[in-house]
Amino acid sequence: MKERVLFLCTHNAARSQMAEGLLRSLGGDKYEVYSAGTEPTLVNPYAVQVMAEIGIDISKHYSKSINEFRKTNFHHVVSLCDKTKEICSFYYGYKTYEESFSDPSEFTGPDEEVLAQVRITRDKIREYIIRIFRKPE
Question: Could you tell me the strand order of the sheet in which 76-79 lies?
């Protein structure tokens, strides 16, 4: 049976969407992966673009409310921003994780500068996921 993982961030627009795509790509055979937000909006097009650059398609993802998962038990709940850390306590699973990553919705400047910042966030989230979820063979 696959372990269920929920990634949380405020808008479920970039950080948690990228994390969902990354873990599905890196460990989809071991994990059933979801993402949600406390204030869902729309998936950030910059997140879609930087994920496509590494061969992961999140273009069909949509922003979901954490309320959709209130009755789901998770093995792992991962907060990716300061605003959702307190939410983790509502989910009883084996493990909760809290790490804060920069919010791509707050990045400003020309497209190339914003994309560069989103790439940095993506890469930091990828490193974090590998550190936490890569299990020895």
Answer: 31-37, 3-9, 76-79, 95-98
Tens digit of each residue's pLDDT (9 = 90 or more) over 56-67: 999 999 999 999
For the stretch 9-21, pLDDT in tens is 989 999 999 999 9
pTM of the model: 0.91
CB distance 57 to 51 below 8 Å? yes
Annotated catalytic, 129? no
Q: Which of 9, 14, 22, 87 is catalytic?
A: 9
Q: Of 43, 58, 88, 125, which one is the catalytic site residue?
A: 88
Say whether 46 is catalytic.
no
Please name which of 123, 103, 130, 122 lies closest in space to residue 9, comparing C-alpha atoms.
103
Task: Point out the catalytic residue in the list 14, 22, 81, 87.
Answer: 81
